[in-house]
């Protein structure tokens, strides 16, 4: 029997990734709270940067771009997982699934690109502090960011071109949402060759972006040795903020995308946990790191809290 004859006509998928979860409501509530905190933190960064002209500088534009990417990345799949866990709705239409798959991959690639361009920004700022604003203007940063979005979109456009023509033999997704691996596993073809192709593409993305980030760190550390103690503290703070974001994103991505192709075996629960951590971890950590460790944004938050506190005191006094 040919694959085409054995295939079924798809209108929807059944999400089976949480079938073995013993306390779906508890897990769903934790994910919902984490998701709301992540989106709120990113929105706060965006609102502060867009509304304050003093923050219309290359570094803050990149932080704003990262916040947009975080919202896109976590919102691509988390609402679906929360819906399955809390409402028990475990079906998703075929078209919606394909859109989710592409948006999720776009968000993941842009996370890598965003952290890389932010490393480049800090590298130029530390090596050429006096000429930084002449080298990296707002216009150049915007153009560079647009280029990265276009490149990422073109890479993602390959996915539906590969998946849509394939015949499907199953409605059931093994994982918690519509990532590429889950959708390809429902097809009637040998999935390994597609996974190997994905691993090769992931390897090159990881290799080039991570290598660039590491080289920028090496150069920055070299300049740190030649700097005064005060400059060392500023550079160290910059590195720590960026390093926290890099670790949260790259570690689980590297395990899922690369190590599993080299013999590392993960159970379904382990893979799901890493995947969810890859989605929610960076999206929660990034806005917190850049809110708390960026002086201008932190000062704005403190001023807002002081104003709110003053208003409450006046209300209580009047009462």
UniProtKB/TrEMBL annotation:
<feature type="transmembrane region" description="Helical">
    <location>
        <begin position="98"/>
        <end position="120"/>
    </location>
</feature>
<dbReference type="GO" id="GO:0004930">
    <property type="term" value="F:G protein-coupled receptor activity"/>
</dbReference>
<feature type="transmembrane region" description="Helical">
    <location>
        <begin position="25"/>
        <end position="48"/>
    </location>
</feature>
<dbReference type="InterPro" id="IPR000276">
    <property type="entry name" value="GPCR_Rhodpsn"/>
</dbReference>
<keyword id="KW-1133">Transmembrane helix</keyword>
<keyword id="KW-0812">Transmembrane</keyword>
<keyword id="KW-0807">Transducer</keyword>
<dbReference type="InterPro" id="IPR017452">
    <property type="entry name" value="GPCR_Rhodpsn_7TM"/>
</dbReference>
<dbReference type="InterPro" id="IPR052921">
    <property type="entry name" value="GPCR1_Superfamily_Member"/>
</dbReference>
<feature type="transmembrane region" description="Helical">
    <location>
        <begin position="199"/>
        <end position="224"/>
    </location>
</feature>
<feature type="transmembrane region" description="Helical">
    <location>
        <begin position="236"/>
        <end position="260"/>
    </location>
</feature>
<feature type="transmembrane region" description="Helical">
    <location>
        <begin position="60"/>
        <end position="78"/>
    </location>
</feature>
<dbReference type="GO" id="GO:0005549">
    <property type="term" value="F:odorant binding"/>
</dbReference>
<feature type="transmembrane region" description="Helical">
    <location>
        <begin position="272"/>
        <end position="292"/>
    </location>
</feature>
<keyword id="KW-0472">Membrane</keyword>
<protein>
    <recommendedName>
        <fullName>G-protein coupled receptors family 1 profile domain-containing protein</fullName>
    </recommendedName>
</protein>
<dbReference type="GO" id="GO:0004984">
    <property type="term" value="F:olfactory receptor activity"/>
</dbReference>
<dbReference type="InterPro" id="IPR000725">
    <property type="entry name" value="Olfact_rcpt"/>
</dbReference>
<dbReference type="Pfam" id="PF13853">
    <property type="entry name" value="7tm_4"/>
</dbReference>
<feature type="transmembrane region" description="Helical">
    <location>
        <begin position="141"/>
        <end position="163"/>
    </location>
</feature>
<feature type="domain" description="G-protein coupled receptors family 1 profile">
    <location>
        <begin position="41"/>
        <end position="290"/>
    </location>
</feature>
<dbReference type="GO" id="GO:0016020">
    <property type="term" value="C:membrane"/>
</dbReference>
């Amino acid at each position: 029997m040919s694959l085409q004859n054995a295939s079924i006509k798809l209108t929807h998928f059944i999400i089976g990734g949480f079938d073995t979860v013993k306390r779906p409501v508890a897990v769903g509530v934790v994910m919902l709270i984490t998701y709301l905190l992540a989106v709120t933190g990113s929105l706060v960064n965006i609102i502060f940067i867009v509304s304050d002209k003093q923050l219309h500088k290359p570094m803050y534009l990149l932080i704003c771009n990262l916040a947009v990417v975080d919202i896109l990345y976590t919102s691509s799949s988390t609402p679906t997982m929360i819906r399955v866990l809390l409402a028990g709705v475990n079906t998703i239409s075929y078209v919606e699934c394909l859109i989710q798959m592409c948006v999720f991959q776009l968000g993941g690639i842009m996370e890598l690109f965003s952290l890389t361009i932010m490393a480049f920004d800090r590298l130029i700022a530390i090596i050429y502090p006096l000429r930084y604003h002449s080298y990296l203007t707002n216009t150049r940063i915007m153009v560079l960011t647009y280029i990265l979005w276009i490149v990422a979109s073109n890479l993602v456009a390959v996915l539906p071109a590969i998946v849509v023509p394939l015949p499907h033999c199953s409605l059931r997704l093994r994982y918690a949402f519509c990532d590429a691996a889950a959708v390809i596993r429902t097809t009637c073809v040998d999935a390994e060759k597609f996974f190997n192709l994905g691993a090769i593409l992931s390897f090159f993305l990881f290799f080039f972006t991570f290598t660039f980030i590491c080289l920028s760190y090496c150069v920055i550390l070299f300049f740190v040795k030649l700097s005064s103690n005060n400059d060392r503290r500023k550079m160290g703070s910059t590195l720590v903020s960026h390093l926290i974001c890099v670790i949260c994103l790259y570690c689980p991505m590297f395990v899922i995308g690369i190590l599993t192709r080299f013999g590392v075996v993960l159970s379904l629960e382990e893979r799901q946990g890493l995947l969810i951590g890859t989605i929610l971890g960076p999206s929660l950590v990034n806005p917190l790191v850049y809110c708390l460790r960026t002086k201008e944004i932190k000062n704005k938050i403190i001023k807002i809290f002081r104003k709110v506190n003053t208003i409450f005191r006046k209300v209580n006094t009047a009462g």
